[in-house]
């Protein structure tokens, strides 16, 4: 009897691309500039070695052994992807980010059916490990969903635009200054403030600034915003880390500082204009916040 042939399904051999994506932007600092960063008193703490943006990176695939001495942050803004470290494999969804530790074998790539668009940066320096630990403390090597930050993308493009002109040393210093803010924009936070809570805070601050001449209490703020005093305090402590009254007092003192720089005002009139009937009480409050008396501040 003739032997039966089994049907064999051949999977397509997809191409693998390290780069070369339409619309991509990539900056790789040459050895001379890296040497400058490593030695410069400011840059050596934290600096960029490579940075880029890959839009719709179909067939993107990269594999490295443990020869990459920088930390690699990848932020997926669209589509999907994956990465592997050791025996662990992770799927990446939109707005996820992950950081690959220095000197760690890894691989990563775009999803075949829905390829990712990614912002990425290689960074190193004396504080690089600190930022890795700081940004990955919730999931050491797993993906993390990035908190919303409207300035993150603007920061990224600002960095790239300055590094494109890396012949000017000032541009390198400026870009590495921005790196601190860019990395910090990914900081995991347990503080999850709603749009409504944020609106309450802004309304309260506006009301405070409009009434610095009054001696308002917590009940006055909560009544104005039509919420309970306890709820208002909880929102402030969650978002601002201090109470509404503390902020109101700080705003009064800031206003007092401006007035003290004008010789037409003395301490007594300033105290009264800010709702303090007792100028000595005002002076104690001022000194508690500023570290010196209004009189000494005026003539310092």
Report on the architecture of this protein.
The chain has 300 residues and is of the alpha+beta class. The protein has two domains: 25-184, Jelly Rolls (Sandwich), CATH 2.60.120; 195-298, Orthogonal Bundle (Arc Repressor Mutant, subunit A), CATH 1.10.10.60. The chain has eleven helices and ten strands. The strands form two sheets. Strands 1-2-9-4-7-10 form a six-stranded antiparallel sheet. A hairpin with a 2-residue loop joins β5 and β6 (88-92). α6 packs across α7 (229-239). The longest helix is centred in the C-terminal third of the chain and has 17 residues, at 244-260.
**Count of the separate structural domains:** 2
Shape: elongated
- Based on helices, strands and strand pairing, what is the structural class? alpha+beta
**Superfamily (CATH H level) name of the largest domain:** Regulatory protein AraC
The average pLDDT score comes to 87
Largest beta sheet: strand ordering: 1-2-9-4-7-10
The quaternary structure here is single chain
The CATH architecture category of the largest domain equals Sandwich
Order of helices and strands: EHEEEEEEEEHEHHHHHHHHH
Strand count, sense and barrel status of the largest sheet are: 6 strands, antiparallel
Total beta strand runs = 10
Which value, in Å, is the CA radius of gyration? 27 Å
In percent terms, what proportion of residues is strand?
15-25%
Compute the number of helices: 11
Distance between the termini: 108 Å
Helix content: 40-55%
CATH class of the largest domain: Mainly Beta
Uncertain residue ranges: 190-195
CATH topology of the largest domain: Jelly Rolls
